[in-house]
Amino acid sequence: MKKIKYLFIFCLLxxxxxxxxxxxxxxxxxxxxxxxxxxxxxxxxDGRTQSIQLSLTAPFFDKVIPPATGxxxxxxxxxxxxxxxxxxxxxxxxxxxxxxxxxxxDYNLTILYNNETYTATETLTPVVPIEFVEQKNDGGFAGDxxxxxxxxxxxxNIKNFYLFEFLxxxxxxxxxxxxxxxxxxGNQIFAFxxxxxxxxxxxxxxxxxxxxxxxYEFLNILLQQTDDESGDPFETQPATVRGNCVNQTNPNNYxxxxxxxxxxxxxxxxxx
Length: 272
Prior knowledge:
Layout: H1 2-17, E1 33-42, E2 50-56, E3 72-77, E4 82-87, E5 93-96, E6 106-113, E7 116-123, E8 132-139, E9 145-153, E10 161-168, E11 173-180, E12 188-195, E13 203-210, H2 213-225, E14 246-247, E15 256-270
Parallel strand pairs: 1-15
Antiparallel strand pairs: 1-2, 2-5, 3-4, 3-6, 4-5, 6-7, 7-14, 8-9, 9-12, 10-11, 10-13, 13-15
């Protein structure tokens, strides 16, 4: 009986202590251009300084995102004004200090990279300001979360789409939400945010941007795919979401990312 007992214990220890190293051989695709071109005209500023970031896709286990350097980047508006974006020291970040933002004006992005031409078009979409913020300290299912409501007045008889960014300054963490006015047209409505880690004295920066319907749909799909509460093994797996940027030279080598032009409202709130 003792031998059987000792043998059983030995088998358990063997199962616990054995560790196999599994090398996962992933197929690496050719790198694609990633376009992060969000031009924002913040209310109360001249909006003249704008930046566009270009990078390349990388293998799954790579820790460094390679910049796309040496590109030619220009934006042209519907009044034939051309704005040249110059790269900062091979960083993949391209800057223009003479941008002229005009509401409801079309802007055309052109990128020449590796002998291929990428283009996109967007309209500078206006946004109403954030009017005020309300705080609730006993939110969430357990009543231990701080809830924030940022109120704004939606314009009536106009289809509006919004991107809200909630930035917790001390953590440098950001939460994104998108809204439309299908059921709230012309009413005072709020954007909602909650976080159990918020504390009194924390600075919360609430950033609201007007976006086009296509940008709203693009962001909505992305947010659904990256939802923290997702993970059902039987659900549809995330797929590549195509933005509004097109490779005119080789359509099969399509880029990732989006070209957005927005008016933006910023409201800084201190948690009570």
